[in-house]
Amino acid sequence: MIEIQNLCKTYQTGSVKVNALKDVNLTVEDGHFIAVMGPSGSGKSTFMNILGLLDHPTDGSYLLDEVDTRSLDEYRLAAVRNRKIGFVFQNFNLLPRLSAQRNVELPLFYAGVAANERRALAAAALERVGLLSHIDHRPNELSGGQRQRVAIARAIINHPSILLADEPTGNLDSASSYEIMTLFQELHRQGSTIILVTHEPEIAQHAGRIVHFRDGSLVKNEKVESPLDAR
Ligand code: ADP
Ligand code: ADP
Q: 121 by DSSP, 3-state: which?
């Protein structure tokens, strides 16, 4: 469970201060699917970076599974991040010269997992996203939607409890976007907690709840009565 209380983030550049997050409160229970919306500059990325333990708040608290993240040093933050959090990006962030399998294995490679086990886990993750048949393809041999599936397989290879996705459909056409959102819903049904930034209202309708940011404040938190496509 994620418990955010009175979270503030101030950036200081020279004498200029920007209050990127102001007194944000949010609880996300395990297994929930939240869409984050808001205009450019409203604090969404800052919020996601803090949730992903990539950045520190200036004030307020962030409890992850009842652990106050302020009590963790950089080493433990990295350990928690690797174990519990998967990241999906707008630009996929795949390495162009590596096959789907090798891209998906990358987190395990850095963790020192043996090659056979890496291969087996990568195949299992690619199967979960419906791309086992493309295991040897390089990114330039895949469509945008397929590239994002590979990136999602990489994000879930360690079975993280939380998936953080920043505009995952931002570079996709509407048919691929829809497919990717159906995949996120499938992962949600299997128990993942998902927090997904989008500026497209139709995309947000796939989530169970939508939170809206404006000028660094969380201004609205609404339940989606019947999430698009939920079966
Ligand atoms: P969004 O993701 O909603 O577009 P951001 O979280 O990127 O919003 O930005 C929120 C505010 O914080 C903006 O005013 C932005 O200019 C500022 N900001 C973001 N990152 C930095 C940074 N590293 N240094 C200084 N200001 C920043
Ligand atoms: P709450 O109102 O308790 O905060 P949510 O609005 O997050 O709960 O979700 C209500 C229920 O709907 C939960 O059981 C959640 O698992 C389910 N749910 C949320 N999003 C989806 C979705 N996209 N597809 C299917 N079920 C969903």
A: helix
Token pair for 150: 């590979």
Smallest CA separation from ligand 1 atom 25, residue:
11
Amino acid at 150: V
Nearest to 43 by CA among 18, 60, 6: 18
List the beta bridge partners of residue 92.
none
Single out the residue of 145, 82, 86 nearest to residue 110, CA to CA: 82
Please list every protein residue whose CB sits less than 6 Å from any atom of ligand 1: 11, 13, 18, 20, 38, 40-46
ipTM value, please give it.
0.74
Q: Stretch 61-87: mean pLDDT, rounded?
A: 95
pLDDT tens digit sequence for 117-135: 999 999 999 999 999 999 9
Question: What is the C-alpha to C-alpha distance for residues 102 and 94, in angstroms, rounded to an integer?
Answer: 10
| Beta sheet of 16-28, edge-to-edge order | 16-28, 2-13, 59-64, 67-68
* Structural contact between residues 177 and 165, judged by C-beta atoms closer than 8 angstroms: no
